[in-house]
Automatic annotation (TrEMBL), chain A:
Keyword hit for Transmembrane helix: yes
Membrane-topology descriptor: Multi-pass membrane protein
Ranges annotated as spanning the membrane: 12-32, 66-91, 103-124, 148-174, 195-217, 260-281
Source species: Brevibacillus choshinensis
Domain spans labelled ABC transmembrane type-1: 66-276
Keywords: Cell membrane, Membrane, Transmembrane, Transmembrane helix, Transport
Localization annotation: Cell membrane
Highest taxon listed in the record's lineage: Bacteria
Name used for this protein in its record: Sugar ABC transporter permease
Broad class of where this protein is predominantly found: membrane
Family: Belongs to the binding-protein-dependent transport system permease family.
Pfam families listed in its UniProt record: BPD_transp_1 (PF00528)
TrEMBL record, chain B:
Record's keyword annotation contains Ligase: no
Location, primary (coarse class): membrane
Similarity comment: Belongs to the binding-protein-dependent transport system permease family.
Protein name: Carbohydrate ABC transporter permease
Domain ABC transmembrane type-1: start-end pairs: 69-258
Length: 285, 273
């Protein structure tokens, strides 16, 4: 048995090496960089102690970007959940061609978010874009990138891509609800709307919790789409925390402060992630 | 009445499908229009298609798009291979010998939940130091760590579903755990492993942030390369549309092979798909 255990440890080696090389080492390196005056130019940096952390903790833009990411995650998740649930309920019946419809509906998920955003730059362009043209026909002349509308635009595009994700998971959850429950409710004189709120929703709570968590965590990271569409503008209006750190490092060239911000963000997210891990790894181990 | 309801349902369904696929459809249409047709107001829905933009993307334009495309392919394939090779024995050891299934496994999975930018900056500083900036190898390394969590999770799930009796019989016959893994477990899990590899391929192909930060012209992939056409001498929408169409094609085609695992793959295995 001892022999077998050695074999097992030996099998773990490749993964352990990869994780040490790719996680442990960069983490230590990040701590090292974050206490130095590291610059993009790569010249040798002087030791600063905790100065980078202090300047991040007193930087209103840093807080603002975290707040923006959180807000974006909240609105995007809410919108995606509502529409995704409606779609799942719509699909939860027998009809021909369901398989092919479902497959096609999942295609947007496979498109790189950066390219999806790029397509929308084309669609929303004021000169060649198809969306402003048809909106104009109906007498709507708003600029989708206007400060008043830009967040609606961004959430809508995120939703276009991720509603199918919510849909497919909720749909999988719906199929596990036994038909007898609905029949019993019908016999008792419940209408479809009552059935939905008294049977479907309560039974979907575990599924919805997981989906909400996954979407919230994921949309909090938002970077690709915003980078391509607005680059965080106008001004700092749409600067998510990922974008804030990116700009710190590569526009201002302050690698030290950007790394400090990354470390702080990790500490901030740790409790949230620990909580969501409980949900996610529940089945595996 | 019933008929009307049926037709209404179908119309609604078709409308929804059209809405969600519209961006993709529009992009394919745009890529086939002449530059004049692209810019025409009102938008043209009927036009004579042209392949000039595809030609431009590969041999005009001023960007080595063919190179970006090959880079994407090479990096995604390399990442897939390494990720599978690293995760497979580890997942087996975790399930059959209970090594590190609790803490180590959770730790690895939690990596996937952090924003990638948190990794990107230290990697940039580190790569600058060891000379891995703008290399395919550098991008593969990063993509491996981003994909290990999901692949490990899928494989642990697959191995847990395998009946242990076959392996026990092989052990009694004198097989070593290593050869059991190679000769029995690997063939049995081949479809699942292929799915994990394809998912890793798709996610790596679609990666943007690390490529943006850790590469320049040499190792750049199509996701970042497509955005370059925007800054180039005025915006040539037809060329961009063609670049996008080419870039989304491989992931879309691959999707059909991993339909069954898609939900699991996209939700990090949190939901039984």
């Amino acid at each position: 048995m001892q022999h077998a255990r050695n074999q097992a440890l030996w099998m773990m080696t490749p993964l352990a090496v990869v994780v040490i090389a790719l996680v442990a080492f960069p983490t230590l390196y990040a701590y090292f960089v974050s206490v130095h005056d590291a610059r993009l130019s790569g010249e040798s940096a002087s030791f600063l102690g905790l100065n980078n952390y202090a300047s991040m903790l007193t930087n209103p833009s840093f807080y603002g970007s975290i707040y923006y990411s959180a807000k974006f995650a909240l609105f995007a998740t809410a919108a995606e959940l509502v529409v995704g649930i409606c779609l799942a309920v719509l699909f939860n019946r027998k009809f021909r061609g369901k398989g092919i419809f479902t497959s096609l509906l999942l295609l947007p998920l496979m498109v790189a978010p950066s390219l999806f955003a790029l397509i929308f730059r084309l669609m929303l362009n004021e000169f060649v874009g198809i969306v402003p043209y048809y909106l104009n026909l109906w007498g709507i002349t708003v600029n989708p990138f206007d400060p008043a509308w830009v967040n609606v635009t961004l959430v809508a595009i995120d939703a276009m891509q991720w509603i199918p994700f919510v849909f497919i998971i909720v749909y999988a959850g719906l199929t596990t609800i036994p038909e007898e429950l609905y029949e019993a409710a019908r016999v008792d004189g419940a209408n479809p709307i009552q059935s939905f709120f008294r049977i479907t929703l309560p039974l979907l709570v575990p599924t919805l919790t997981i989906v909400a968590f996954l979407r919230a965590i994921d949309s909090f990271k938002i970077y690709d789409m915003i980078y391509v569409l607005t680059n965080g503008g106008p001004g700092e209006l749409t600067t998510s925390v990922s974008l804030f750190i990116y700009k710190k490092a590569f526009l201002e060239g302050n690698i030290g402060e950007a790394t400090a911000a990354s470390v702080l963000l990790t500490f901030l997210l740790a409790p949230v992630l620990a909580l969501s891990m409980k949900f996610i790894v529940r089945r595996g181990a | 009445m019933k008929m009307a309801k049926q037709i209404g349902f179908w119309l609604l369904l078709s409308f929804i499908l059209l809405l969600f696929l519209f961006p993709l459809l529009l992009d394919f249409l745009t890529s086939l229009k002449t530059e004049g047709d692209v810019a025409s107001f009102p938008p043209k829905w009927v036009f004579s298609p042209t392949l000039e933009h595809y030609h431009n993307v590969f041999s005009g334009a001023g960007y080595p798009f063919a190179q970006f495309f090959l880079n994407s392919f090479f990096i995604a394939a390399g990442t897939s291979a390494i990720t599978v090779i690293v995760c497979m024995p580890a997942a087996y050891a975790m399930v059959r010998y209970g090594v590190g299934l609790r803490k180590f496994f959770s730790f690895i999975v939690s990596l996937k939940l952090l924003p990638p930018i948190v990794f990107a900056i230290p990697y940039f500083a580190m790569y600058q130091f060891i000379g891995l900036l703008d290399t395919k190898l550098g991008l593969i390394w990063v993509a491996v760590i981003m994909n290990v969590p999901l692949t490990l999770m899928l494989m642990v799930g697959f191995i847990q579903e395998l009946p242990v009796e076959i392996e026990e019989a092989a052990l009694i016959d004198g097989c070593s755990p290593g050869s059991i893994l190679l000769r029995i477990v690997f063939p049995l899990l081949a479809p699942g492993i292929a799915a994990a590899a394809i998912l890793t391929f798709i996610f790596t192909w679609n990666e943007f942030l690390f490529v943006r930060i850790l590469s320049d012209m040499n190792a750049m992939t199509t996701t970042v390369g497509s955005t370059l056409f925007i800054q180039a001498y005025g915006i040539r929408w037809g060329d961009i549309a063609a670049a996008i169409a080419l870039s989304v094609l491989p992931p879309l085609l691959f999707t059909f092979f991993v339909q069954r695992y898609l939900v699991k793959g996209l939700s990090m295995g949190a939901v039984k798909g």
